[in-house]
Amino acid sequence: MIIKSEIVNKVRENFDLNIYETKVWLALLSKGVVTAGETAEISGVPRSRTYDVLESLTKRGFAIIKVGKPVKYIAVEPKTVVERMQTNVMNKAQEKVTTLSNLKGTSEYNELLTLHRDGISPIKLEELSGHITGRANILSKLKEMIGTAEKEILIHTTIEDFEDKSRVLISVLRGINQEKVKLKISLNGDQYKIRRFASRNDLKIKESEQNGKYFIIDKKELLLMINPEIAEKEVGIWVNSPYFANSFTTMLDKLVRN
Q1: Closest to 134 measured CA to CA, from 146, 124, 142, 144
Q2: Cis preceding-peptide flag for 46 (omega within 30 of 0)
Q3: Nearest one of 152, 164, 160 to 215, comparing CA atoms
Q4: Is 117 within a domain?
Q5: Is 96 a domain residue?
Q6: Do the beta carbons of residue 231 and residue 213 sit within 8 Å?
Q7: 3-state SS, residue 142
Q8: Number of structural domains the chain divides into
């Protein structure tokens, strides 16, 4: 059986198989029903290993043992395998989510909080800074920052960037108590797009000619984006500094136009 190495590698990677499992499953698919000896000949896998590999594939749902003698193996069609794998991944993910959710009520979690609090306490505020890479990580940090706001949330970015992040940010922003927390949004870009977006999402948005993308919480915490061109490769600088964040807030208030 001659199959391109690229296909073998892709199947191995996507279906989480080792090299022998991949070759044997492909051999099964190519013939439908075969004995272990025939599988060894077709796949090129050593006969001494074929039985173990076939047993592994059977347990994982890639093959079925045909009743009768000699023992033969039937390939499970790819569609069924993919659907089973999707179900398993979703079940495992849900189990993990449940485990993580329950973790917050445990003594181990409280110990982690204590370790973090005691470790942070001696550090000066100006030393709390770092860079965050990747769109998912940046969105996660923004959700965290917005969730801690007590007085004010200030957002300044482009209309394109805010629309891109809105699937996550809009729901988070709607969850804040706007009687206690003041929300200020200013966007740079096409005025028609900004006004249409504001109307569609029932938001008060100021238009600005000021470039830059930053998010400021309570004039204390700042996330500044430094390469806004490619969303998936975004890099942000996070700074927990009242002096620095307040300076940005003052500068923005002067530059934003009604």
Answers
A1: 142
A2: no
A3: 152
A4: no
A5: no
A6: no
A7: helix
A8: 2
Q: Rounded to an integer, what distance in angstroms lies between the CA atom of residue 48 and that of residue 40?
A: 9
**Domain around 182:** 127-255
What is the identity of the amino acid at 134? G
Q: Each residue's pLDDT tens digit in the chain (258 positions)?
A: 566 777 788 888 888 889 998 888 888 888 888 888 888 888 888 988 988 999 889 888 888 888 778 888 888 888 888 888 888 888 888 888 888 888 877 887 887 777 766 655 554 544 456 778 888 888 888 998 898 899 999 999 999 989 988 888 888 888 888 789 999 999 988 999 999 999 999 888 888 888 888 899 998 888 988 875 655 678 888 888 787 787 777 777 766 544
The DSSP bridge partners found for residue 65 are 73
Same domain, 74 and 141: no
Burial class of residue 203, CB neighbours in 10 A (0-12, 13-18, 19+): middle
The Cα 165–Cα 160 span in angstroms is 9
Taking the C-alpha atoms of residue 177 and residue 192, their distance in angstroms, rounded to an integer, is 29
Is the distance from CB of 224 to CB of 244 less than 8 angstroms? Answer: no
Prediction pTM value: 0.54
- 156 and 222 co-located in one domain: yes
